[in-house]
Amino acid sequence: MSETHESAPATPVFSVRNLWKVFGPKAHRVPGDKELAGLSAAELTKRTGCTAAVRDVSFDVRKGEVFVVMGLSGSGKSTLVRCLTRLIEPTAGVLEMDGEDVRAMDKHRLRELRRHRTAMVFQNFGLLPHRTVTDNVAYGLEIQGMSKQERRAKGTEMVEKVGLEGLGDRRPVQLSGGQQQRVGLARALAVDPEVLLFDEPFSALDPLIRRDMQEEVIRLHREEGRTMIFITHDLSEALRLGDRILLMRDGEIVQLGTPEEIVANPADDYVRDFVRDVPREQVISVRRAMRPAEKADGDNGAELSPDTLVSDAIEAVARSGENLRVVDDGRTIGVIDHACLLNVVAGIDGDDDGEGDPGKDKEVAAV
Fold first, then answer.
1. Which of 73, 177, 229, 356 is the most buried (most CB within 10 A)?
2. 55 and 23 in contact (C-beta within 8 Å)?
3. 181/319 same-domain check
4. Is residue 21 part of a domain?
5. Counted domains in the chain
6. Last residue of a domain, one of 274, 294, 315
7. Do 108 and 185 fall within a single domain?
């Protein structure tokens, strides 16, 4: 029997293969020269005067996921997200959106991609001070040529969606920093993009406001399921928001995986140092922490789903005073006891099933 369309893997929203962005004289020579491409950042600059901001990066962004790109200042994360829509022109590599070659797009197709298919939320709110909140939100629709009545109606709808109901007639100067960033988010949502791109949008906000905005992103994603690419240097933000996290250093991918994979199995000492202070029990699930079930455990008692966080399992075990069964699709696949929970908190992994293996994480980056 021939394979059906239903079994075929979905086309990634963004597919990136061997992407380079090199700044400097004769930058195009670097990706194609094995010797130059293999030099460290300092050696490359000394020898050629070039800086490789993005070095041979490959990954896919799946439809409906929150894909976080994380790294310290100078890691290449902001350059990378700007390459996706060619706000910065890549030097080499393959870049596709929904299977279409972005690097081959003419000005018309590229303009359509930036105005209709993607929208970016920046750290700098970039609001127009002489316009009201609603008119700021509707600005992208005005650029698209939508009538005033239609765009104001859409703008009002988006203002309410991001929790600014009743503030549509105010000017940006009358808003707090968090409210201004909500306007920026509403402006991006107004054009109904397939993908929302966030470039460290909350880094200038106070901690409490920043947390509120993170909650807003989580809420919007839960309600709409829109694909999001989120750039941040903050690990706690990455772990909180991301379905998968791509961690960069010196323009290269260090590790790509789920928050649980990265915390439980860091690929190297650099990642290990990054996640050292993360409360593991708030990231790792009982699927990874459980031990095999034994006859003595029986088939009765409280149950947990495999995706339950260890922090929640600790509370459940403390409340019941008993071991808990991990049940998937009606079948007991493991048991959680005090020792399992303590191992996670202490950083002792009992996982030997290959899930989250750092070698596999690196393979994912090239898939």
1. 229
2. no
3. no
4. no
5. 2
6. 274
7. yes
Report whether 195 contacts 15 (CB < 8 A): no
Q: Do the domain assignments include residue 34?
A: no
User: In angstroms, rounded to a whole number, what is the distance separating the alpha carbons of residues 187 and 179?
Assistant: 12
Q: Both ends of the chain: CA-CA distance in Å? A: 27
pLDDT value at residue 148: 87
Helix (H, G, I), strand (E, B) or coil at 192: coil
- Looking at residue 285, the DSSP 8-state letter turns out to be B
Own/partner long-range contacts of 243-247 (Cβ < 8 Å, ≥24 apart): 243/65, 243/66, 243/67, 244/65, 244/67, 244/68, 245/68, 245/69, 245/70, 246/59, 246/67, 246/68, 246/69, 246/70, 246/365, 247/70, 247/71, 247/271, 247/274
Record the tokens describing residue 110, joined without a space. Answer: 């590229």
Alpha helix ranges (H) inside the chain: 29-32, 34-37, 41-48, 77-84, 107-112, 133-137, 139-144, 148-161, 177-190, 207-224, 235-241, 259-264, 269-274, 286-289, 310-320, 338-346, 358-365
- The enclosing domain of 165 has a CATH number of 3.40.50.300
Full domain range(s) for residue 301: 281-356
Q: Judge whether 23 lies within some domain.
A: no
Give the closest residue to 198 by CA, choosing from 16, 63, 68: 68
In sequence order, the 6+-apart residues with CB closer than 8 A to the CB of 318 are none
Residue whose entry in the numeric block shows the structure tokens 């490359």: 44
Do residues 185 and 323 share a domain?
no
pLDDT of 2 reads 40
Please tell me the distance from the alpha carbon of residue 117 to that of residue 178, in angstroms, as a whole number.
26
Q: Which residues in the chain come in under a pLDDT of 50?
A: 1-5, 351-367
The span from the CA of 59 to the CA of 350, in Å, is 29
Cβ density class 232-258: b for 16+ within 10 Å, e for less: bebbebbbbbbebbbbbbbbbbbbbbb
Q: Do 169 and 265 belong together in one domain?
A: yes
The DSSP result for 318-332, as a single string, is HHH-S-EEEEETTEE
For residue 305, give the CATH number of its domain: 3.90.1280.20
